[in-house]
Specification:
2 copies of one chain form a homodimer.
Chain A: H1 5-19, H2 30-44, E1 53-54, H3 56-63, H4 67-79, E2 83-86, E3 90-93, H5 98-120, H6 124-147, H7 150-167, H8 171-188, H9 197-212, H10 216-240
Antiparallel strand pairs in A: 1-3, 2-3
Helix pairs in contact in A: 2-4, 3-4, 5-7, 5-8, 5-10, 6-7, 6-9, 7-8, 7-9, 9-10
The first copy, chain A, binds a DNA duplex (30 and 30 nucleotides) through residues 29, 55-57, 66-69, 71, 87-90.
DNA sequence: GCAGCTCCGATTGTGCACAAAATTATGCGC
DNA sequence: GCGCATAATTTTGTGCACAATCGGAGCTGC
């Protein structure tokens, strides 16, 4: 017995929504996209440390695909600033400089402020739906906290921001934010685990309240604070580590 | 007789600055980057129309490179949304939808507002240098107008915005703007020639004046107007043409 | 006449073999 | 033991041949 068309469609929609929360480069076929995401995950979760050499044969062996496919994926990943590709020297996991980190953070802030502004000024009827869905997400976050599932908590905490962007209906904006967030996860990963996740839930809730009230100013302020906390954590953790590269300030 | 080290360094710096005004994807070697830019130019100048099929063999022949190299370039171009790459169906010049156009425009506006804000709040000493360089650029624009060199005029008019971004010293912001502008040039190209370039010079001057005066509010307003003119021209020209795709307004 | 089927040419996808380059290892003179 | 040239090995780059796939032309039967 097969699923009804309606059921299948619903599943497809769910899959799409799920998929939008991860980087999804064009020009790759389905299986290549999966491999790409595995690579990105490996980097984001620091199984592959910044600066690590990425040998084509090695990756081909572990992923069980041909070297050509690995090369394609590395090329795409280099466009997202996740891996550094040097001619005749091969690929390595990118090591974002302090300047890169700051710039990525500033970009994320800029994009998210726009997201919040857009959501706060959406017609009330539609806004109610949006806010409802986002509150459900926060419920999930709360459940993860209650269950002590820290890993899930971290993922949900990040996805909240992407879900907000999705709700604006602006796919370009969403994708840019996705890129910035992914790049930042590379720049932070090891440190991000220190962030205070409990307070994250509270801040998400407050932010939604401000949006629902149409209070752009307050929402903006809350967002700046919320992301600011992240940046502070980062700055602290970075200063503990050694400085990798000299930053070329213009 | 060879050049002095200082001279060489100066040249290198000039080249870099020049290069930053065009899309410069990572992960490609020097010759591939040149081919990539030729492709982008061909598309931006509408020698290759939106929707045009890009046969690998054909491109390989005209560019006099192997098919493999063409494939790499097409893959990279697809990341920048310039070409559409469909599995087993090959590449074609992207045909941005109305929604794509709007989103790209909104993104460009957001990024440039940030640029202007940053420039307006830079320390005066440094700001004087920046404004000076940008005024020189406007002089070039004026010269092109006087000479009746419309093509140069168009190029300079666009480059003014990228030079502003460069002066912020934020390379990520600059690159994002570069991407947005390139994508928009694909979305507009044929129509952009209609834009009023004389008034462009005046608007650039006013914008600089406001920045030099540190008047963020005024600079922002001028920018919105300036880019708004572009969008209006676009919207008008688009409405004359037939609608290509259905736009999925959420 | 046309719906559907099959076959054929054109085009893209993929693995492989070899070339080029870089990195590491080796040996030699001092 | 050290610096340096050189050989050996590893790793990346590239072209090519063939496989898979697509689109359309032409045929067949109703």
């Amino acid at each position: 017995m097969t699923d009804s068309p309606k059921k299948i469609q619903a599943k497809a929609k769910r899959d799409t929504a799920q998929a939008s929360l991860t980087l999804r480069p064009a020009g790759l076929n389905a299986s290549e996209v999966m491999l790409f995401q595995r690579l990105v995950d490996s980097i984001a979760e620091r199984r592959l440390a910044p600066g690590a050499k990425l040998l084509e044969d090695e990756l081909a062996a572990t992923f069980e695909v041909s070297r050509e496919r690995v090369r394609r994926i590395l090329l795409v990943a280099s466009q997202y600033r996740i891996v550094k590709l040097e001619p005749n020297k091969g690929a390595s996991v990118a090591r974002p400089s302090q300047k890169d980190r700051k710039e990525a953070f500033a970009l994320r802030m800029l994009l998210e402020q726009q997201v919040v502004r857009l959501l706060a000024s959406v017609p009330v009827a539609r806004q109610r739906v949006i806010v409802g869905e986002l509150r459900e997400h926060i419920d999930e976050e709360r459940a993860a906290l209650a269950n002590g599932d820290r890993k899930l908590q971290i993922r949900l905490s990040g996805e909240f921001h992407l879900k907000m962007a999705l709700q604006t209906g602006n796919s370009l904006l969403t994708q840019m934010l996705q890129e910035a967030v992914t790049f930042l996860s590379l720049a932070l990963a090891a440190h991000a685990y220190h962030q205070n996740l409990d307070c994250s839930i509270g801040e998400h809730t407050q932010l939604l309240d401000a949006i629902a009230a149409g209070d752009v100013q307050r929402a903006d302020g809350l967002l700046v604070d919320h992301l600011g906390h992240l940046e502070d954590d980062m700055a602290y953790n970075i200063s503990v580590a050694q400085d990798d590269e000299k930053t070329l300030d213009i």
